[in-house]
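User: Hey, my collaborator sent me this sequence without any context and asked if I could get a structure. I don't really work with proteins. Can you help?
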Amino acid sequence: LGHLITPSGKVWSELTFVRLADDDFYVTGYSNYQLHDLRWMKEQLKADEKVNIEDVTSKRAVLFINGPKSEEIVSKVLDTPADLARTEFKAFQWRKLGMAGADVIAVRMSFIGEHGLELHCERDQVANIFQKLHEADPKLADWGG
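Assistant: No problem. I've predicted the 3D structure and written it out in structure-token form, which is a compact way to encode the shape of the chain:
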């Protein structure tokens, strides 16, 4: 989790940064700030820097799975077992996971004050992943209504 800061020290935007490799970052933010954040990033580039910024907003989706059973539910849909316990997969860490036949970047983060995971995937896979998660726990997305 990080911030884009103006020269005067004001917060321009809040983003999630995942360092996939030494020279490869996956950055997400609020979809309604897409152009705002892209403009800021491009304005910071110096002429001699070799940086490739690829906007994948229309290709990616995020599911937020929060609550005391989040790890248990996600574990049921993994293609290969993984230890998602909070002692092994700590706050603000990330993992690449296979889930319901899709590649997922899982980030241990929650904005609601409860434990949870962000599941980042290709947009064309999100419905299938959600369906499999819902099959694993039919109360998923049940807001008590």
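In plain terms: The chain has three helices and seven strands. You can pass these tokens on to your collaborator as they are.
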